């Protein structure tokens, strides 16, 4: 029996509030995992979570003899943020909040799970639901992949809620949707001395400020203006008082980019400038560079198919790519994928302690997973879609 939209929306709203109230940090999502497991078991899903995954759930539905499998992904972790929404379903876990809306993602995917279970005998292939841990620290997708969680998938889709999009608006584009993320820390080591006698030491602070300014030329003079890159120094530190020059000064920050060539070029230029500045000022320097997620890259063959399907059920937009990172990129490097932005009509942006998102966005998101899964099953199994 088909599920009534209103009934489903009410159910998903309750589910999201429950999840919102009990957020858990990356790789500690134990209660969330239990909740998802029991929900999916009740719907008749086959739980296939690899033993290696201590949190997160992977579950399948559809004809076991079919070789066509479409993956639907949601992340499940929350952030170390003290919630200030004042909602009656605000977090009861002190200092932890679903401030990125991963509760919204989970509830939507459970909604799709309901719709798929309802049509289970009509599915033309298998659908694998992937509730992935630890997105915020960018290690969960890789852990899922290494545990075998994306094995044999024909395609995988996912989305991030977008507070600045309205309910029922869905943004999809071919190519790079979310940025590659790099993180750096640079430490200059000189020799401290009395502030009044700089000639007796070797000042790391002047070298640091000169370097921070010169790094702005990476984007303005080196990388291709047609390919966006951001270099941000976000934190500097050195010294402890007004009349002493320190031994050490350091800064850290991040680089964002949308293609591999720009990513590599920005890194090379960064090293060249920092090492050059260290040589100019006669200082020792350490550069630590941490590669974060790659670009979330939407597959050029599948994206038009997903767009075509999405248009029939929601208001389609061409979104502005986001400079934020998303570890879904790990999946999109291995399996043809499409990632979307779905409207959650929020009061502010991701990672804010007062973000409130609109539950009316849940049903469109659940339906997007459901219809896209069916469309891609049809694409890969060479049949037409179910009547809807
Ligand atoms: Zn986030
Ligand atoms: Zn997020």
Automatic annotation (TrEMBL):
It comes from the Bacteria. InterPro entries: Amidohydrolase, Bact_exopeptidase_dim_dom, Peptidase_M20, Peptidase_M20_dimer. Keywords: Amino-acid biosynthesis, Carboxypeptidase, Diaminopimelate biosynthesis, Hydrolase, Lysine biosynthesis, Manganese, Metal-binding, Protease. One of its GO terms (biological process) is lysine biosynthetic process. One of its GO terms (molecular function) is metal ion binding. Its cofactor is Mn(2+). This is Metal-dependent amidase/aminoacylase/carboxypeptidase.
């Amino acid at each position: 029996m088909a599920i009534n939209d209103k009934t489903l929306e009410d159910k998903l709203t309750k589910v999201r509030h429950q999840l919102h109230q009990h957020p858990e940090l990356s790789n500690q999502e134990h209660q969330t995992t239990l909740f998802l497991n029991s929900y999916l078991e009740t719907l008749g899903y086959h739980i296939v979570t690899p033993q290696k995954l201590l949190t997160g759930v992977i579950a399948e539905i559809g004809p076991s003899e079919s070789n066509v499998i479409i993956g639907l992904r949601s992340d499940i972790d929350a952030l170390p943020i003290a919630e200030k929404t004042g909602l009656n379903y605000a977090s009861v876990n002190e200092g932890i909040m679903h401030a990125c809306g991963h509760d919204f993602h989970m509830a939507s995917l459970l909604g799709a799970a309901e719709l798929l279970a309802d049509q289970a005998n009509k599915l033309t292939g298998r659908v694998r639901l992937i509730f992935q841990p630890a997105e915020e620290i960018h290690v969960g997708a890789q852990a899922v992949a290494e545990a075998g969680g994306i094995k044999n998938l024909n395609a995988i889709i996912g989305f991030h809620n977008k507070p600045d999009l309205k309910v029922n608006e869905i943004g999809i584009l071919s190519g790079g949707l979310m940025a590659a993320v790099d993180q750096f820390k640079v430490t200059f080591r000189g020799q401290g001395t009395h502030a009044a006698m700089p000639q007796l030491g070797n000042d790391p602070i002047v070298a640091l400020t000169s370097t921070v300014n010169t790094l702005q030329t990476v984007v303005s003079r080196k990388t291709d203006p047609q390919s966006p890159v951001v270099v941000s120094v976000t934190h500097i530190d050195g010294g402890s008082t007004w009349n002493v020059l320190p031994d050490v000064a350091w800064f850290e920050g991040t680089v964002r980019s949308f293609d591999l060539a720009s990513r590599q070029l920005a890194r090379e230029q960064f090293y060249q400038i920092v090492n050059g500045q260290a040589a100019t000022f006669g200082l020792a320097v350490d550069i630590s560079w941490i590669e974060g997620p790659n670009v979330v890259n939407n597959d050029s063959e599948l994206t038009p198919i997903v767009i075509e399907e999405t248009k029939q059920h929601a208001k389609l937009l061409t979104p502005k790519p986001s400079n934020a990172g998303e570890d879904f990129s790990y999946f999109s490097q291995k399996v043809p994928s499409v990632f979307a932005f779905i409207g959650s009509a929020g009061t502010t942006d991701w990672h804010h302690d007062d973000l409130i998102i609109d539950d009316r966005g849940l049903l469109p998101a659940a339906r997007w997973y459901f219809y896209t899964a069916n469309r891609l099953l049809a694409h890969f199994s060479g049949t037409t879609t179910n009547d809807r």
